């Protein structure tokens, strides 16, 4: 399978899952896919991001060598929304290396408070912040404050995410 051609062929969950099944846990094929996400033209990068998120969900170890490049791409405000959304979706569920936690917490905090960001990017941002705070409990108060600020923001998805994060923080205690 030519991954780039497969990405351009169709944008659907069915096609995404075909690509994920093809890539499987193969590091070389994953490198090809994530490189398309990080450096491909708009449409290819957008569709690759979707497949990358499903690959990492099934095979979390694949993302380890790519943290630096993914976080660098997250810091690029010109990156497609789909790239930011899927990168944050990935990062809220994986063990983030210590050396990236500070920068990623800051990037996520900035996205959370940027009202021009898509709702999904903002929602995944608080999830990433909570993921980092699990490693660094000193950050729990900041995450709690941010989650509480979402409770009455008027955006149901963010209010729900805020309640969910508060419940998870409470369960950690």
Report on this structure:
- This protein folds into 2 domains: 1-94; 98-173, no CATH class.
- The longest helix is centred in the first third of the chain and has 17 residues, at 42-58.
- The termini are far apart.
- With 173 residues, it is mostly helical.
- It contains 10 helices and no strands.
- Helix 3 packs antiparallel against helix 4 (42-58).
- The model has no long low-confidence stretch (mean pLDDT 94).
Provide the helix percentage.
over 70%
Overall shape: it is globular
State mean pLDDT (0 to 100 scale).
94
Number of helices: 10
- Quote the beta fraction: under 5%
Q: What structural class is derived from the secondary structure elements?
A: mainly alpha
- In total, the number of strands is 0
Largest sheet: none
Order of helices and strands: HHHHHHHHHH
Low-confidence spans: none
Number of domains: 2
Quaternary assembly: single chain
What is the rounded distance between the termini? 48 Å
**C-alpha Rg (nearest Å):** 16 Å
Summarize the structure.
The chain has 173 residues and is mainly α. Helices cover 74% and strands 0% of the residues. α2 (13-23) packs across α4, α3 (27-39) packs antiparallel against α4 and α6 (81-91) packs parallel to α8 (119-135).
